[in-house]
C-alpha cells in the first residue's frame, strides 16, 4: 500500500516560541518526510514569507496562526485557549490590528513577570528575554523560562511551568496577558477568509479547559474543526473530543505542536488525515 502523505497542521518557529528559524523548520519537515507543514506561530504571521520561500516542490507550506483567546465559562471560570487559523488573509485590517495588540500585551506581561522576579532578587532581565525572543519575535513564557534555565534556577524550560514559577494563573510569578474573547476570535478568522480550528481543546494537563457548551457556541460562530490528536491529550480526552466532533459536525485534526528544543515533541508526531486537510481547504474564502 502506498504511504499516505503526512500532514502536520500545528508547529512553531523562532518567530514565536519555537527554536528553529522558519526556513530551518521547513528543512526539518522535509527531512521528517512531511508532505504538508502548517506554520502556526502564536499571534503572528511574520514567519510566513521565509517559510514559503524555503519550501521545496515536495512540501506544501500551509500558512497559519495560533490566536490567544479566552472563554468566560457559564460557571464563572475564565479559561485561556488557543485558536488555530489556517490561510487567513494576512492583510486583513482587523486581523492585523488584533494580532498586533496581542503581541504588545505579551511584551507587557513578560516585562511584568521579569520585574516582579527581579524585585525579589531573581537575576534575570527583560533585555535578555526580549533579545532571546529575537527582533520582531513574539515573546512567550518559554522565553522567560529560558532565562530561568540560563540563571540555573530551573533545569529545563518545562520545569518553569509549575505553580512555583509561571505555570498558569495563580502561579507565583504569574501575570495576565490580553486574549481575544473566543467567539470573536472564531469570527475574526472567518472574516479574514481563514478556517478556524480549536487547538488542543481538552489538554487538561496544561490547565483548565472549556465546557462542551463553549465548543458548541464556537461551532455556531463558524468553527471548522477540533485538534483531537495532540501530544497533550490523554486517550480519554481524545475519545470525548471525537464524540463531540461527531455530534457537532466538526472536522478532526492532529498535529505535533512542535516547538523545537523548547519541547520534546518531534515534527509529525501526530498528523491529520489528507481528506480532512482537503475538507479544510474547501472552506477557505477568497
Ligand atoms: P504563553 O503563550 O506566553 O502564555 O506561553 C504558553 C506557551 O508555553 C505554550 O504555547 C507552550 O509553548 C509553552 N508551554 C506550556 N506548558 C509547557 C510545558 N509544560 N513545557 C514547556 N513549554 C510549555
Ligand atoms: Fe507555544
Ligand atoms: Fe497552543
Ligand atoms: Zn501551539
What tags apply to this protein structure?
single chain; 286 residues; alpha/beta; eight-stranded mixed sheet; 9 helices; globular; binds adenosine monophosphate; binds fe (iii) ion; binds zinc ion
Question: What is the helical fraction, as a range of percent?
Answer: 25-40%
| First-last Cα distance | 36 Å
Secondary-structure element order, N to C: EHEHEEHHHEHEHEHEH
**Main sheet overview:** 8 strands, mixed
Rounded average pLDDT: 97
Low-confidence stretches: none
Hetero ligands = adenosine monophosphate, fe (iii) ion, zinc ion
Care to count the β-strands?
8
Short structural summary:
The chain is α/β, with parallel strands linked by helices and 286 residues long. It has helices at 22-31, 48-54, 93-119, 126-133, 141-150, 182-191, 212-221, 235-248, 274-281; strands spanning 7-8, 36-39, 60-72, 78-86, 180-181, 195-198, 225-229, 251-254. Residues 12, 17, 42, 140, 259 line the site of one fe (iii) ion (FE).
Amino acid at each position: 500500500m502506498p504511504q499516505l502523505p503526512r500532514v502536520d497542521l500545528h508547529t512553531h518557529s523562532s518567530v514565536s516560541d519555537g527554536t528553529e528559524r522558519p526556513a530551518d523548520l521547513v528543512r526539518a519537515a522535509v527531512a521528517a518526510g512531511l508532505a504538508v507543514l502548517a506554520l502556526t506561530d502564536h499571534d503572528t504571521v511574520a514567519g510566513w514569507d521565509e517559510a514559503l520561500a524555503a519550501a521545496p516542490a515536495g512540501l506544501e507550506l500551509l500558512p497559519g496562526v495560533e490566536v490567544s483567546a479566552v472563554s468566560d465559562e457559564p460557571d464563572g471560570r475564565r479559561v485561556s485557549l488557543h485558536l488555530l487559523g489556517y490561510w487567513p488573509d494576512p492583510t486583513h485590517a482587523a486581523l492585523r490590528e488584533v494580532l498586533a495588540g496581542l503581541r504588545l500585551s505579551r511584551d507587557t506581561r513578560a516585562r511584568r513577570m521579569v520585574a516582579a522576579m527581579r524585585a525579589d532578587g531573581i537575576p534575570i532581565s527583560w533585555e535578555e528575554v526580549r533579545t532571546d525572543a529575537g527582533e520582531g519575535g513574539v515573546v512567550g513564557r518559554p522565553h522567560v523560562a529560558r532565562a530561568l534555565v540560563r540563571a540555573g534556577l530551573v533545569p529545563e524550560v518545562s520545569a518553569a511551568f509549575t505553580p512555583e514559577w509561571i505555570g498558569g494563573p495563580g502561579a507565583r510569578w504569574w501575570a495576565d496577558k490580553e486574549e481575544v474573547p473566543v467567539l470573536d476570535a472564531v469570527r475574526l478568522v472567518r472574516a479574514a477568509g481563514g478556517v478556524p480550528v480549536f487547538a488542543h481543546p481538552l489538554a487538561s494537563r496544561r490547565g483548565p479547559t472549556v465546557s462542551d457548551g463553549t465548543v458548541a457556541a464556537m461551532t455556531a460562530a463558524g468553527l471548522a474543526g477540533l485538534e483531537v490528536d495532540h501530544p497533550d491529550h490523554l486517550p480519554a480526552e481524545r475519545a470525548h473530543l471525537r464524540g463531540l466532533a461527531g455530534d457537532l459536525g466538526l472536522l478532526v485534526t492532529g498535529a505535533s505542536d512542535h516547538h523545537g528544543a523548547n519541547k520534546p515533541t518531534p515534527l509529525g508526531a501526530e498528523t491529520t488525515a489528507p481528506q480532512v486537510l482537503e475538507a479544510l481547504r474547501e472552506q477557505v474564502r477568497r
